[in-house]
Amino acid sequence: MSIQWFPGHMHKARKEIEEVVPKIDVIIEVLDARIPFSSENPLISSIRGDKPCVKILNKRDLADPELTELWIKHLEKEQGVKAIAITTSNLAEVNQITDLCRKLAPHREDMGKQIRTMIMGIPNVGKSTIINCLAGRMIAITGNQPAVTRRQQRINLQNGIVLSDTPGILWPKVENPHSGFRLAATGAVKDTAIEYDEVAFYTVEYLAKAYPERLQERYNLDELPETDIELMEAIGRSRGCLRAGGRIDLHKASEILINELRNGTLGKITLELPEMITEELIQVELDNTRKMEEKIQKKEMRRKRYLKNKR
After folding, report:
1. In sequence order, what E strands does the chain have?
2. Which of 16, 38, 210, 286 is most buried, by the most CB atoms less than 10 A from its CB?
C-alpha cells in the first residue's frame, strides 16, 4: 500500500522544527508500540542529528508485551537511543519520560538551567495525551484522529523541563508498502484516505499467521479458512454482516476487524518484528533498483528511437 500524504501544514511544521532543533537538549519521539518501525518517521532521525533521544513506545497496553520488550532492546542496540514502553493510563510510566530527559542532559541542571526538550511523532500516536499528562493539565488538543495538532507550542512543565510540542508529521512517501498497511490499520492515516477492505485483508492475513487463536476466539471459529477472503467472510458471518440473498458484506466485516484491532478487543497485538522489517527493507531496495533499471532501459530505448528517426 503506497501512502503519499504531505499536507501544507506538515511541510511548514518540518521547516519550523529544523529551525528550533539546534536549541534543544533532548528529543522525545513517540512511537506506536504495535508498529515501532512503521510509526518511526525517518525525517526525525535526519532532523535530530546526534541529539540525545528518548523513544517512547506508547499504547503498550494494546501491544504484545513480549514483542515490545524485543523492540526496546532492538532500538537501544541499533540506534543508540533510550527506549521505554508506556500507556497514558499509567501516570507513573509517563513521568519516566522526564526522569530520562534529566539523565540525558545532566549538564543543564548542573548549570541551573532548564532542560529544553522537543516531542515529536507521526499523527495519532498519542503525543498530545502524553503532553497533557506531563503538564498535569489540558494543554494540547487531543483526538482519535490523525493531524489534530497543527502548530508548535512551548510548554513549561514547572519541573525544570521545557517541552516544545510539534504537529504530527508524516514523510512525503512511505516506501515500504507493508508499513503503509500497518499505519492504516492502526489509525495513523485518516480513514477517508484508505480502503478498509484492502487494509483488512492485509491485516487478517498477518493475524492468521501470528495470532490465529485470537481470531478463533473472538469470532467463534473452530478453524481458520485457508484464504484471506474466506476468513473475512467467516468473520462477517460471525458478526451478522449479511446483505440481501445471504451475501457477506465484506466492507462492514472489514470495519469491524480494523476497529476491534485498534481498540484492543482482539487482544494485545504487535503487527511487526525487527526481522520482518529487515526482510521487507531488502525487498524495497531490490524493487527500487529494478524500477531504476527499467527507467534507464526506457530512457535508452527512447534515445535509440530518436537517433534512428533522425537518420
Report:
1. 26-32, 53-58, 82-85, 115-121, 153-156, 161-165
2. 38
